[in-house]
Amino acid sequence: MNDDPNKPSARPRGRDVLYVTILTAGISAVGIAALLGAAGHLSSTPSGILSLPVVLGSILILNGTVIASVAAILLRMRRMTWRDMGFRIPRSPWLWGAPGLGIVTVVAIEGIGRALDVSASELTTRLIAPQGFSWTGLLGTLVFIGFVAPFGEELYFRGLIYRWLRNRWNPSIAASVSALLFGGAHLYYSLPVMLIVALLGLLLAVAFELSGSIWTPIAIHAVQNSIVVSFVYWSLT
What we know:
Layout: H1 14-39, H2 52-77, H3 92-115, H4 121-128, H5 135-168, H6 171-184, H7 191-211, H8 215-235
Helix pairs in contact: 1-2, 2-5, 3-7, 3-8, 5-6, 5-7, 5-8, 6-7, 7-8
C-alpha cells in the first residue's frame, strides 16, 4: 500500500481545480447573498457588524460547497477516492504531534504579530463574537470556525491546489504558491496579516507533505482556530 500523498492512483488536474473553484464561487456567492438578504444584511449594518448566525451560516455555505464540489467533480466524475485526496492515517509521529503543533502555531503567529506590530484581534473579535460573549456563540463558533472551516480550507488549499501544484513543481515551490493563495484568500485582513496567514499556509503544506495525510494540517488548523476562538471569548467574559 502506498502512503505517499504525492503518488496516488489519481491526481487532481488543472481543470479540476478550475471547475471546483468556479462551482464553489458561484454557488456559495448565491447562497451567501440569499442568506444576507434573508437576514436583512444586504444594506449597511451598524458599524459594519454582521450577526453571528450570518457569519457561521456563510462559513457553512462556503465550506459545504467546497466539499460538495470536490465530491461531484473529483469523486464522482473523475472516480477518485477520499484517499486520493489525502485522507489516510498520518505517519506515526504526526498522528500524536499535530495537536501540539497547533498550539505552537498559535504562539508563533502571536509572536510574529507582536514583533511586527501587526494585529487582527479587533477584526477577529468582530467576526467571531459580534454580539459579545454567549455560550451559544462560543460553542457554535468552535464547531464552525474550529472544525468546519479548517476541514473545507484544507481540502481546497492542500488537498486540491497543493496536490495539483505538487504534481507540476517541486514541494518548495508548490508549498510556497499554495501558501500565497491561502493568504490572499483572507482578503478581509490587512496585507501584513495576510502574509502571516500565508506563513501558516506554508506550515500546513509542509505538514501535509511530511505526514502523508491531509488530516495533519486539518488537525493543526483546527487546534489553532479553536484556541483563537477560545481566547477571544475568554477576553469578553
